[in-house]
Amino acid sequence: QSTTRKRLLEAFSAADGEFLSGQALAEIIGCSRTAIWKHIEELRKDGFELEAVRRKGYRIITTPEKVNENEIRLGLQTKVLGQSIHYLESTESTQKIAHQLAMEGCPEGTLVIAEEQVNGRGRLTRTWYSPKYTGIWMSLVLRPKLPPIMAPQFTLIAAVAVVQAIEEVCGLYPGIKWPNDILMGGRKVTGILTELQADSDRINAIIIGIGINVNQEKEDFPEELRHIATSLFVEKGEKISRAGLVQCILLKLEKYYQIYMDRGFAPLKILWESYALSLGKNIIAHTLTGKISGRAVGISDEGVLKVEDGNGQIHDIYSADIEM
Ligand code: BT5
User: Fold this and answer.
1) Same domain for 261 and 286?
2) Would you say the CB of residue 123 lies under 6 angstroms from ligand 1?
3) According to the model, what pLDDT value does residue 226 have?
4) Of 46, 62, 78, which marks where a domain is finished?
5) pLDDT, tens digit, for every residue of 23-73?
6) Which amino acid residue places its CA nearest to atom 33 of ligand 1?
């Protein structure tokens, strides 16, 4: 955060809800009125609600809701997930922090959450756009006693938990595109990134990264994402409490994680399929080694996508980008 912005916020906070003129602000902070105006616009983008009245100036009406430890802890009903919270105003990537904590032996359920990521990551070498205060950018550390081959199932379990939480908190009904996208109206509202720390036969930690576009407006997305991304606010037309949604996701995920450890993937597979968008459809799977076209016929008990090509041959897809 720039020092001008910090001083601007300090000035507003000292004014305690009273108006401050652009001129007064410029003098307090020692910059031009144009600079003040630019910073006010930036604050608006970040979720501050500011009132501007002619001849009086500006005042802050509401500050953005934070996703700090207090906000998430208050009302959190889980036993394990989110019992340890690492909150950051800004970070490179919550995945990176969670990996470090996991290496250092942090407890299962540790949550890393940030207001902003400046180097958010997608799969492979892709980036994840994570602007300040408007989304949920979080990573969870789980330590299931399982072989590494089971790890991809956690992406699917997390997707089910997120879809159900969005239904419950927002009254919206998204679908899942295998393996890691949650879509609304064909646009991506959530991406999931599951990473692993493991020996050849044993998982030490699974890091589940979840990125959800929550309160962004349509114009907030950069040009290249405008046609492929959406936010819960855009779909619902109402701002949504990020902390409330995080709490609901943690609760659902804890429940499904327990079911999975007790009874295996079968019960979750049924749930996952009920939200799946691509099953039964003709798709093209772009894998690292080439592309396979055919009909998505289902997922296996391991979470592998089954695609039937024109010759009736079934292909197992372990990881790919799906074109529908
Ligand atoms: C994903 O990758 O969808 C996984 C995204 C995981 C993000 C979370 S946020 C918390 C944690 N910390 C991190 O650093 N990451 C995780 P993939 O399927 O590879 O999709 C990436 C592609 O989605 C990009 O190449 C863009 O086309 C698009 N994209 C980027 N940012 C987006 C956004 N905010 N909303 C929708 N689409 C986006």
Assistant:
1) no
2) yes
3) 96
4) 62
5) 999 999 999 999 999 999 989 887 789 999 999 999 999 888 899 999 999
6) 129
Q: How does strand 314-317 pair with strand 321-323?
A: unpaired
Residue 239: give the domain boundaries: 69-275
Q: Which of 37-51, 73-87, 144-158 has the lowest mean pLDDT?
A: 37-51
pLDDT (average), residues 166-187: 97
Dihedral of the alpha carbons of 64, 67, 69, 70, in degrees to the nearest 10: 50
| pTM for this prediction | 0.91
Counting from 1 in the atom list of ligand 1, the atom nearest the Cα of 131 is 34
Both 78 and 40 in a single domain?
no
User: Which ligand 1 atom sits closest to the C-alpha of 129?
Assistant: 31
E runs forming strands in 180-233? 181-184, 187-198, 203-213
| Residue 230 near ligand 1, beta carbon < 6 Å | no
One domain for residues 255 and 290: no
> Are 128 and 250 in a shared domain?
yes
Question: pLDDT tens digits for 206-264?
Answer: 999 999 999 999 999 999 999 999 999 999 999 999 999 999 999 999 999 999 999 99
CA 238 to ligand 1 center in whole angstroms: 23
Angstrom distance (rounded) from CA 93 to CA 6:
23
What ipTM did this prediction achieve?
0.99
Beta bridge partners of 192: 210
Q: Tell me the CA–centroid distance for residue 172 and ligand 1, in Å.
A: 21
Looking at the fold, whether 87 and 120 belong to one and the same domain comes out as yes
Residue 231, ligand 1, Cβ within 6 A: no
Output the CA 97–ligand 1 centroid distance in Å.
17
Respond yes or no on whether the N-terminal peptide bond of residue 148 is cis (omega within 30° of 0). Answer: no
> What is the CATH classification number for the domain harbouring 55?
1.10.10.10
Same domain for 157 and 175: yes
Nearest to 173 by CA among 272, 275, 268: 275
| For ligand 1, mutation pick of 95, 115, 128 (most atoms within 8 Å of CB) | 128
Is 44 found in the same domain as 143? no
The CA 229 to ligand 1 mean position distance, Å, reads 10
pLDDT of 45: 81
Quick one: pLDDT band at residue 1, thresholds 50, 70, 90?
A: low
Name the domain count of the chain. Answer: 3
Domain CATH for 299: 2.30.30.100
Cβ atoms of 115 and 133 within 8 Å: the answer is yes
Tell me, in angstroms, the distance from the centre of ligand 1 to residue 57's CA: 39
Nearest CA residue ID for atom 7, ligand 1:
211
For residues 30 and 108, membership in a common domain is answered with no
